Structure formats: C-alpha cells, structure tokens
Amino acid sequence: MAAIFRRLLVTQGILSIVVSLASLISNSPISAQGIRRGRVPPKKLAAKSRSELAVKADEVFWQTFHNGEYQNIQRALNVLTAAYLQTPGDAKTAAHIGFMHNWRVAERNRLESVPATITDDIILSRRYFQEAVRLDPSDARYLGFLADSILLEGNLHKDDRLTQEGYLLLHNAIKAWPEFNLFSGGFVMSRLPSDAPWFREGLEWQWRSIDECNGEKIDRANPDLSKYMARETKEGNKRVCWNSWIAPHNFEGFFLNMGDMLVKAGDWRTAQKIYANAKLSHEYGTWKYQSVLEDRIRQAQSNVAVFNEKKETPKAGIMLNSEFACMACHRQ
Ligand code: HEC
Fold first, then answer.
1. Is pLDDT above 80 for 22?
2. Do 263 and 210 share a structural domain?
3. Which of 47, 207, 273, 277 could form a disulfide with 255 if both were Cys (CB 3.0 to 4.6 A apart)?
4. What was the pLDDT predicted at 229?
5. Residue 38: its pLDDT value, please?
6. Do residues 238 and 308 both lie within one domain?
7. pLDDT digits (tens, 9 = 90+) for 171-198
8. Among 28-37, 74-83, 105-114, 224-233, where is mean pLDDT lowest?
9. Is 250 touching ligand 1 by the criterion CB < 6 Å?
10. 58 CA from centroid of ligand 1 (Å)
11. Residue 126 maps to which CATH number?
12. DSSP 39
C-alpha cells in the first residue's frame, strides 16, 4: 500500500513538473509565427525593466555568494532560474545563473568527492553567459566570463577550435575592459602547466593589470603598491582594481592569486613581495584568508614544487583550484 502511495506521489510529482513545463512552453514568446517557413524569426529582445522576482533572485544570489553558502547554490539557482523563465530578456539574471554554475565548478574541492558531471556546470555557465552577453553587450565583465567558460568548455570536449574561440574572445574582452579582464583571463590560465605559453601570458597579464590600474609601469623588481594606495576609487572602470561591495576583498585576492602564479613560475622571491601587497588593503583586518597568505609567504620556496605537481591535492594547490577560488575576493 505504502509503495503504491509512494509511486503515486512520484508520478504526481513528475506530472506536475510536466504540466508546468507544458505551460511554460505554451506561454513562451517563441510563437508559431516566428518560425514560419521562409521567415527569419524575430530577434530576442532585452527586458526593459526588472521583475519583482528578478530583484528577489538578486537578493538570494548575493546573500548566498557573499556568505560563502556553497551548499545553497542549488536553492539560489532555483530562484534565479524561475526568474529567468519568467523574464528571459533579463541579462543580469542570466549572468547570475552563469556565475552560480561557475562558482560550483571553481570551488568543487569543497565537495567530499567531485562527481564527473560537475563539468555540466561549465556548459550551463557558458550558455547563460552567452545569453547575458547577447542581451547586454556593454558589460565587458560578462564577456570576460563568457570567454573563460568557452576556454573551459573547449578543454572539456578537447575541442581545440572551441578553445581557440574562447582565447580570441578573451583578447576582445581584455581590450574592452583591461582592468577587469587581464585579471580574469590570467586567473583561468593559472591552472595550466607553468611552462605553457598561455600560463606565461596569463602571468604577464597580472603585471599588466597592475600597470593598467595605476596608469604607469610598476617596478617589477620591487613591486610595492604603497605609493598607489591613495588612488583608490569606487567609480568608473578603475573601481575593479579596488575593494567594493561586490568584491569586498578584491585587492587581497588579486595579490594572493598573483603570488601563487609567480611561485608556480618558480619566482618565489618576487612572489613574496607580491603577496605582501595584500596587507596594504584597508580591509585586510577583516579578510578571512590572512593565515593562508601568511603561510604562502613563509612557504613560498617549498611551494614551487607543490604548485607544480602534476596531480594537485585540493588542500595544497594554487588559488584557482582551492576552496576559496571565488571567496578570496567575494566573501564578506
Ligand atoms: C581577484 C578577485 C576576484 C576573484 C578571485 C573573483 N572575482 Fe568576481 N569580481 C571581482 C571584481 C573586482 C568584480 C567587479 C566589481 C565591480 O564591477 O565593481 C567582480 C564581479 C563579480 C560579480 C558581479 C556581477 C554583477 O552582477 O555585478 C560576480 C557575480 C562575480 N564576480 C563572481 C565571481 C565568481 C563566481 C568567481 C570565481 C570563479 C569570482 N567572481 C572570482 C573580483 C574577483
């Protein structure tokens, strides 16, 4: 009896999903007229305003992300996706879905065991960023994340043409917003072997990011940011060089990653100087990863071998493969 009842419940559950999917499809703006033979369907338009549900989904998104509630990603995705299905022209909602999937892959080492299907998040992330870029081509941050996701997807399918496409798009994104995308592009390259040309280029991009942010070339032998600290701004393109509500510890996270890349490249002495810049931040005192940074400075030399190991252990790897790949900058 109980078994029958359970089966009935499951069937009903599936039925209600099917019913709601069916209503979604019949309510969808892709009307039959749009796909009449010989006619080009109308272009998808960006939403002119944000729905109540989209604003609510934003709230859930930021609460989940800023508090590091990795275990609640699926819950946030359900609210975001519901908002997207209701208003599929909302670029921000689309991007936030992309970011959630991206976060799940990036910090996968929080999981006890990482399922092979974690790669599905790469595909979904790419698809939603593609939508976000199409709806709002003016936000080059989305373009950078799209390029990064395409690179990851190319790698997942071992499709060199797709990888090449991501790489070219990344260059466009860097041109459009260098202060942001030099970091984000280099960050994704940090997973490659340290002698790979793209790893080297990614590290060069970190240096160039500092130069772009401060309007002059930094002394690479003595990369001390103290003299630039008064330039901090919350406005315009250069805001992404500093801490903000969106990325409360961007400055610290940037130097943690760059230090890791320098160590991986073997230049642990310069890495120690780069790491030390994180301490210049006004918010350093409230940063959750101070002890990680301190350990990195102390163990810089011995980490050269650790960061170059073919099989990285989650607890002892570079920032990109860590449990704080995103949280180093975004955790409140
Ligand atoms: C080095 C620091 C750093 C790291 C690491 C980092 N971000 Fe960011 N992130 C930023 C900065 C800076 C901005 C732009 C802030 C602005 O626009 O004012 C940003 C913007 C964002 C936004 C805001 C989009 C919006 O709607 O405005 C999201 C979401 C985001 N990042 C997600 C992620 C995810 C997911 C990861 C991990 C894969 C990540 N970030 C890694 C620094 C970082």
1. no
2. yes
3. 277
4. 97
5. 83
6. yes
7. 999 999 999 999 999 999 999 999 999 9
8. 28-37
9. yes
10. 15
11. 1.25.40.10
12. S
